[in-house]
Write a structure and sequence with these properties.
By secondary structure, this protein is mainly alpha-helical. The chain is globular. The N and C termini lie far apart (79 Å). 79% of the residues lie in helices and 0% in strands. The relative contact order is 0.13. The chain is built from 18 helices and no strands.
């Protein structure tokens, strides 16, 4: 009996040993590694407790700078223009009118052509309702609902001494101009709006402005106007259409994938060009002192700021009406295109139309002031508009 009990205990012992041998022992290496890593971190924190806090602060600073790049860059651009205006003045040592106004703008439109599908451009160009309403605001609403009423308001007996007549004529001339060639596209792209729609309307507006702006000036001033239409058309083609066409052609090459991988960097480069244009505009405005009295200049700045800000709000509200069925990206693109006035087109036109007129400087003054103003206001709105569009895309 005892022998049978011994055999049974021996069998159970063998089975238990076999069962335990089948279980693989847990590796001790990961545990040792984790313990060592934890010990190292604890030691480093005990030696320098502010290191982790410093890294966290630097990370927060970088995130803040990246998120508010436009606003910070705008502050830097205006400050540099105020401190060293001669560096950014057209014709200065850095030649900003060449490297920024020509090559920088062409680079932005090349990137626009590279990033847009041909179907997107075709769809934007064929969006008759959006394009028609945008051009209607540019060439009808501005001169007839803003330009003429402003001139009539400051011509009344109560406000007749606020502005000289030539400055009021300059305000009316400003409202007859087409939209900016590049700013509306760059701002729309920075806000993640419909860049194709902005590009289409910028081209349409400046093509139409070659004929509609002289017609409006003839209607209001009754002067015979002769403009170099061919030169204006050639400038528009070389500055806008050619870079966009090259960008479209590059989509058939490996450059397309390169752009897609570095899309964030390309967008930041567009923003840098925009800030460079803002810097150039402020430098030029500071260096080319306008023949305007201080009180007239301050009041003009107030009127332009109020008018432009009000126009932005009204236009965004209008293009966002549910009955129009535009997306928020479309509304932002139309708002920028319909609210801005071009300096590149306007100054040569005013100098050509009113050549020899002693009031040419006063005619140009509103345009010279509104150019950096609309850049600054538009840049400040970009983060808000980006969030506005993003909220629509989120379910």
């Amino acid at each position: 009996m005892s022998a049978d009990n011994n055999r049974a205990r021996l069998l159970r012992s063998n089975n238990d040993f076999k069962f335990q041998s089948d279980i693989k022992p847990r590796s001790k290496t990961p545990r040792h590694f984790l313990l060592s890593r934890r010990l190292t971190l604890n030691v480093s924190r005990s030696i320098n407790p502010s290191a982790s806090n410093g890294d966290s602060k630097m990370k927060n600073i970088r995130q803040f700078a990246s998120k508010n790049f436009f606003l910070l860059g705008m502050f830097v651009a205006v400050t540099l223009a105020r401190l060293f205006p001669s560096l950014g003045n057209n014709g200065g040592i850095l030649r900003p009118e060449l490297f920024i106004g020509k090559y920088g703008v062409a680079f932005v439109f090349l990137l626009s052509g590279l990033s847009l599908e041909l179907s997107q451009l075709a769809a934007a160009a064929s969006n008759f309702k959006l394009n028609f309403l945008t051009q209607l605001m540019t060439f009808a609403a501005w001169p007839y609902l803003i330009g003429l009423p402003l001139k009539a308001l400051f011509s009344t007996a109560l406000l007749s001494g606020a502005f000289p007549d030539a400055l009021l004529d300059g305000l009316l001339i400003l409202t007859c101009l087409p939209t900016t060639v590049n700013m509306c596209v760059i701002l729309t792209s920075s806000a993640n709006g419909n860049t194709a729609a902005a590009l289409s309307n910028a081209i349409l507006s400046n093509l139409g402005g070659i004929f509609l702006t002289p017609a409006l000036l003839f209607r209001f001033f009754g002067a015979s106007i002769h403009l170099p239409f061919f030169d204006m058309l050639l400038k528009l083609c070389s500055k806008v259409l050619l870079p966009v066409a090259i960008g479209q052609a590059l989509r058939a090459t490996p450059v397309k994938e390169l752009h897609k991988r570095h899309s964030t960097l390309c967008k930041r480069m567009q923003e840098v060009v925009l800030l460079s244009i803002l810097w150039n505009a402020f430098c030029t405005a500071i260096c080319n002192a306008l023949d305007v009295e201080l009180r007239h200049g301050l009041l003009l700045l107030l009127v332009l700021t109020s008018t432009h800000s009000l126009a932005l709000g009204v236009l965004l509200k209008f293009f966002s009406l549910p009955m129009l069925k535009f997306s928020r990206g479309d509304a932002v693109a139309a708002m920028f295109c319909a609210s801005q006035k071009t300096l590149a087109f306007g100054l040569p036109l005013i100098n050509t139309v009113f050549e020899g007129n002693p009031n040419v400087a006063l005619y140009c003054a509103p345009l010279m002031l509104v150019h950096p103003l609309q850049l600054m206001v538009g840049s400040a709105l970009v983060p808000l508009l980006e969030k506005y569009i993003k909220d629509e895309k989120q379910p």
